[in-house]
Sequence to fold (382 residues):
Amino acid sequence: MTYVFYYVEAHLACIFLMAFLLFKIRKGVNKQLSQIYLGNLIIVLIAYCFAEIFWALVDGGYLGSSKTLLYLSNVFTYLLINVAAYIWYILSEIMQKEKYIESDLTRVFISVPVWISALLCVTAYRTGLVYYLDENGNLTGGKLYLILIIVPFGYLLAASIKALSRAFSKDRYAERYIYFMIGIFPITPILLGILQAMYWRVPFICYGSLAAVLYVYITYMDNLVSIDPLTQINNKNQMYKYLVQKMRNQNPGLSLFMLIIDIDRFKSINDTYGYSEGDKILVRVANAVKDACQGPRSRFFISRYGGDEFVVVAEMAYRAEASWLADQIKNNVKKIPELTGCAYDLSVSVGIAQYDYEAPISIQSFIARADSDLYKQRKLNN
Fold:
């Protein structure tokens, strides 16, 4: 069968490109959980490509045409598709910063459909529930064949629907790029999967998988560029992008505020306890700021501005709300020594500026206003 050569060639090309991506990911210094799962996803897809090569060689008669080989060639492909879809769902939840997914028990529970599919595939040789060989020796879908389709599509669609609902939320502008990526990721694999079901000797799925993984990798790398590696909050560049969008478009009934947070006597703590302790302080203060900005109607963008300074861009109705938020941040930071056992007191100064849409100014001028108020607050604290 002449198609076998081209089928194998296409999958070998995809294996090579995905192996290169895997090398780049594993070579990275900053090993986050999302990075680990992205690597795992690529490993499973590489294994799937090898399984497809095995299937093509069996289907083309190059490895024989026994019933056992025919079943095995399909078991591997179906199993790996299900596992890949499951890993993608876990990865999408991690990228959306869902804490529940970090539990081992939760991940096991979510994997139950994969185990059910695996059991049906492995026992199909005897039961024929998901597929069987007809009298002509052709593989035919059984009574429960639909399960093999529903499980992977279910994982993909569940992740997609959840992410897209967040992408269109006004309160989640900062993460919108990631949410859109997760939301549209399944489109290519699903469409090309349907095409391969219609023309099953054309390697549509391997191309779709490669395109989707490349898209995720590029988006993931872009996201890393916008995240401060120490505190895992937005960096200054991402803050500028956010401010440009917000300063052009006012939400009705809301004003735009900027809070600049500076850690008091940070240099002396660094000099006394070392830079390692200083890094811990920065992470703890970042978490304290994030905790203060939680809420069902939160409209806060949090970023590290540089050194020991953080910025919160907030949409609020009144300046009093911004002052209240500043007090919440201060109180959260003051509690850090008690919660962590630090041998020193910890406090922050907070400067506040309100943007006037009727008299627009530059981003630098807006920041300067908040910085000027920060200077006044710092003098009061000393």
Summary: The chain has two domains: 3-225, 236-381.
